[in-house]
Hints:
Mean pLDDT: 89
Radius of gyration: 21 Å
Number of helices: 15
Structural class: mainly alpha
Amino acid sequence: xxxxxxxxxxxxxxxxxxxxxxxxxxxxxxxxxxxxxxxxxxxxxxxxxxxxxxxxxxxxxxxxxxxxxxxxxxxxxxxxxxxxxxxxxxxxxxxxxxxxxxxxxxxxxxxxxxxxxxxxxxxxxxxxxxxxxxxxxxxxxxxxxxxxxxxxxxxxxxxxxxxxxxxxxxxxxxxxxxxxxxxxxxxxxxxxxxxxxxxxxxxxxxxxxxxxxxxxxxxxxxxxxxxxxxxxxxxxxxxxxxxxxxxxxxxxxxxxxxxxxxxxxxxxxxxxxxxxxxxxxxxxxxxxxxxxxxxxxxxxxxxxxxxxxxxxxxxxxxxxxxxxxxxxxxxxxxxxxxxxxxxxxxxxxxxxxxxxxxxxxxxxxxxxxxxxxxxxxxxxxxxxxxxxxxxxxxxxxxxxxxxxxxxxxxxxxxxxxxxxxxxxxxxxxxxxxxxxxxxxxx
Length: 442
């Protein structure tokens, strides 16, 4: 039975409704991880370090689509809750147009300047050509990457999370199969990994365009529309917290790489790459849940259903805490096996990676609560608070921690930095939730 945004959500309904978006985000993470597995095991650890070094920059460009998707879907969801179906379609169409235009501009800039950017990020002479080869191919198809992020949010708002999952699964399977073919069989190196990724992104980003262009039974459809700059600006501002999260995470990732090159050399960067791939899997569960619940929150906010806002907040915080504890235990159990899968060819690197993952895993306990709180305010169309939580959590707190803790704890300080940042962010999240309770009646 189809679950409507207007319903009262029990734990069972929440899990059923959010499962497709959680699975969708898991698949998105999985095929990025498969890239890393094939590059590390078939091309080598220097190429693996090169891909991980340039990846934060590529994520910054792609996540502009995430900004438009999360901010725009909250605005469109609120409009649907108000009963303005035709207006919601127009807003949705404007978000797609904006993504296409911005994607082309960012693709050109990224393609042209990828070499100096790679050097700026700390690429060595042995890494630079792999950085440039991977980065140029990925940048050439940045539009598809941005559209894939955009539609991940809008499939849920359109009441079709299952279709979003199927599109992402098709993209992921395409990437995985082509990774094996291009890297393991054809031996195309990092270029093969990049081509596998962009072809998968085209499946996940371009095909949904045709679905929404045609008559369909979802809540949304692309149609003729004019330009309403105020709506676009509000949507982008509202989604700026998610963009800030991803940009900050990428910038902090670059800083991690700088610090790791200083304290542990290329081995440190490679170990951090495995930690990030693992973190992507666990973070995908939290992100998938927040993407799945955001339209529900926006709908009930637009409809003035304060009881449902309270229900969603209480249940979600309990789910986030329980999931965080479960993921800590899972990370401890998987630290050694995952290290062996990715870097088992180097005993020293494998030991460093397993230790790093076991320490980093403490951050998962609070990660979900902080991410959901930021997403909660985005869904309420309060982009300012959401951006403040994201900015302080992912940029200020993490940057301070990764710069200061190694002075006291050495290499271990780098692995503990994210947990310290999440603890500080938790106090901030609690303060904002308490301060705005009277305004939003949750």
